[in-house]
From TrEMBL:
GO molecular function list: nucleic acid binding; protein-glutamine N-methyltransferase activity
Transmembrane regions listed in the UniProt entry: none
Region of interest called Disordered, as start-end residue ranges on this chain: 67-89
Name listed for the protein in its UniProt record: Methyltransferase
Length: 371
């Protein structure tokens, strides 16, 4: 993650940690009493506010800052413009909210009145406790605390008859409807070996092992995701069947089934976790389709999980997927789909509601083209 140094008003320089890719502030001014409007003005000038007051008042200030920074968006002339305006607004709101900082002391301590013990939540993100203090956006600290609680609790995945535990920085399988598609799909003629490419939390690798595959190899290029997947594999008692490798795309060898749930939207991510959602020009999807056929055993299949939201936002032509399948030498066996059931799908106030209301999540089942 990026590490920068910020100069405080008293002349000290402290390391600054952030999970996003915004340009960091160069300086920070301390405050125990300040309005959201003042914090916003500082932020517009590239100056962060270092909160030194009561923890709960800091949370209230952050909420007020978010409201102050949010402005009604003008109607967009077309779906693609609506999406890009939405992403720009998200980035601007995030940058502003992340300009309210706190100092994390040695050993992941937070020395603010009425502050909770944040050491476990920060250890979940960073691992070894720090020896030197550093600056952290209050918004991200609250995100770490919430993510830690969810990590301990886990996410119920009915298709697995169990819970998947996901730490901060790994995409959570909250959209569990697609897992049901893979649970119900007819298996290939041979079911010995499977690859799960871009495994994330490991949810699909666990499902494949539960469905009878004797060996599953799951890969992910992200270290946090690989560690998360290994932990979930152990929780389900499947470590003898599933190998998790930290690497990009395909492991060595071939498989009877190759599964992939790539990023769905062709856009630039602004943080590491957003890489599970956004991928410029569908780079991972294209690379997967290009190389997957060579990794298939005879009679093997490829299962691709993909939303059609990009099509409803005019970010991908409706005929793009059939063309990419054909270019990769693949034929479509079947395309099962399900309507998303997450909160945004039914929220009429969402800026992209016009597209989310039409979205479907597909399971494309593919095989090598004949002759």
């Amino acid at each position: 993650m990026p590490l920068h140094t910020i100069t405080l008003a008293d002349g000290r320089s402290l390391a600054y940690r952030s999970e996003n890719r915004h340009r960091p502030p160069q300086r920070a001014v301390p405050a125990r009493q300040i309005s959201a409007a003042q914090v916003f003005r500082h932020a517009c000038n590239g100056t962060a506010t270092l909160w030194t007051g009561d923890f709960h008042q800091g949370k209230q200030l952050l909420a007020a800052l978010k409201k102050h920074a949010r402005k009604p968006a003008a109607p967009a002339p077309d779906p693609q413009t609506a999406f890009h305006k939405h992403r720009l607004a998200q980035s601007q709101h995030s940058r502003t909210a992340n300009m309210l900082l706190v100092i994390i002391g040695a050993g992941f301590t937070l020395d603010l009145p009425r502050a909770p013990d944040v050491s476990a939540a920060l250890a979940d993100v960073y691992g070894t406790p720090n020896r030197e203090p550093f600056l952290l956006p209050l918004k991200q600290l609250l995100g770490f605390i919430g993510a830690h609680q969810w990590h301990l609790k886990g996410v119920d995945v009915p298709a697995l008859d169990g819970r998947i535990h996901v730490p901060f920085g790994v995409f959570s399988p909250v959209r569990g409807e697609y897992v049901g598609l893979l649970r119900d799909a007819p298996l290939p003629p041979v079911c010995e070996t499977a690859f799960d490419i871009g495994t994330g939390s490991g949810v699909l690798a666990v499902l494949l092992a539960q469905r009878g595959f004797r060996r599953v190899v799951a890969t992910d290029c992200d270290a946090r995701a690989a560690a998360c997947a290994r932990a979930n594999v152990r929780r389900f008692g499947l470590h003898a069947k599933i190998d998790v490798l930290q690497q990009n795309l395909f492991p060595a060898g071939t498989a009877d089934l190759i599964v992939c749930n790539p990023p769905w939207l062709p856009a630039k991510p602004t943080s590491a976790i957003e890489s599970a959602l956004y991928d410029p020009d569908h780079a991972m999807l294209r690379a997967f389709l290009r190389d997957a056929p060579a990794c298939l055993n005879p009679q093997g299949q490829i299962w691709l999980v993909l939303s059609d939201l990009a099509e409803h936002l005019s970010l991908r032509p409706a005929d793009a997927l059939p063309q990419w399948f054909a270019q990769a030498g693949l034929r479509l066996l079947a395309a099962d789909h399900v309507r998303p059931i997450h909160g945004k799908a039914a929220d009429p106030s969402d800026p992209l509601a016009f597209a989310r209301q039409r979205e479907r999540t597909f399971l494309y089942r593919l095989a090598a083209a004949q002759g």
